[in-house]
Amino acid sequence: MRKTIVTALTATLLAALTACGGSDSGSDTLRVGTLSDSKPNAYQENGTFTGFDNELLKAIAQQEGLKVEFVATDFSSLLGQVANGTFDIGSSAIAQTDARRKTVGFSAPYNYQALGIAANGTAGITDENSLAGKRIGVVQGTVSDTWLASNAPTAQAVRFPNDAAVLSALKSGALNGAVFDQATAEDYAKNNAGLKVTKAITTTIPHGFAVKKDNTELIGKINNGIKKVVADGTWLKVHDRFEPTAPVPADFKPGP
Questions:
Q1: CATH number assigned to the domain covering 113-204
Q2: What is the 8-class DSSP label of residue 155?
Q3: Displacement of CA 246 from its chain's centroid (Å)
Q4: CATH topology of 2-110+208-252 equal to that of 113-204?
Q5: d(CA 135, CA 158)
Q6: Where does the chain show beta strands of DSSP type E?
Q7: What is the rounded radius of gyration, in angstroms, for the C-alpha atoms of the chain?
Q8: For residues 176 and 125, is the Cβ–Cβ distance under 8 A?
Q9: What letter does residue 159 receive in the DSSP assignment?
Q10: Residue 123 neighbours by CB under 8 Å, 6+ apart
Q11: Which of 85, 144, 198, 242 is geometrically suited to a Cys-Cys bond with 138, CB 3.0 to 4.6 A?
């Protein structure tokens, strides 16, 4: 009898713990891992997560009848957290590279990767050829990180967990320059005296929302939502709000 009672209590406790879980518990709210400091793509303002990627995801969720809850994390750990189920979706201008596809699945593209080299106007940095021997900040694990290693191998790469830490080191003089997403670099240059974007680098690498590899149902819903927000002009409105100077790729212009 005692054993039966203990077994029943254990089962009840396990059920209660399961009910407190995240997306695997049957909850209809999707947890979204994002950044709090990466303007204009993904950031927090007045307690609300916003930015191009997050506002676009909100619009997609509305189209598909999904509920989303944003949680801040560092980019260096984001994809691993999507892969292990901590987050249902990763949202932060994530470039779809072959290496990342081994860890997570991706939605259809919703933008394309562009980078910007940022430096103090007196640093003597103009392009990748002027980075040799200089201390250049990047966020660990980003396309900026791999681009720097491939295009300026003699630069001294200094890796940080997030954009805010790179910017702080750049402003303090601990770095000679940094490589960010282009839109982020332009925002920092606009709001920090002395900083300039000395070169913009465009690529054909698509951005996508990261999802656990086997979650084909969620990927399908996000993809349907992307089609809808492009067709009805929502994509363009969000783009013009957060990245007004960036060109609009033909893929994302409104229409059927």
A1: 3.40.190.10
A2: S
A3: 17
A4: yes
A5: 6
A6: 29-34, 37-38, 42-45, 48-50, 67-72, 89-91, 105-106, 111-120, 135-139, 156-160, 177-181, 195-207, 210-211
A7: 21
A8: yes
A9: E
A10: 134, 176, 177
A11: 144
67 vs 252: CA distance, rounded Å: 24
Q: For residues 53 and 226, what is the distance between their CA atoms, to the nearest angstrom? A: 12
Express each pLDDT in 105-141 by its tens digit.
999 999 999 999 999 988 899 999 999 999 999 999 9
What whole-number distance in Å separates Cα of residue 207 and Cα of residue 35?
Answer: 15
For 18, 38, 62, 90, 190, the CA distances from 209, given in Å and listed in that order, are: 27, 16, 16, 6, 27
219: left (phi over 0), alpha (psi -120 to 50) or beta: alpha
Per-residue pLDDT tens over the stretch 46-92: 999 999 999 999 999 999 999 999 999 999 999 999 999 999 999 99
Q: Domain ranges for the chain, please list them.
A: 2-110+208-252, 113-204
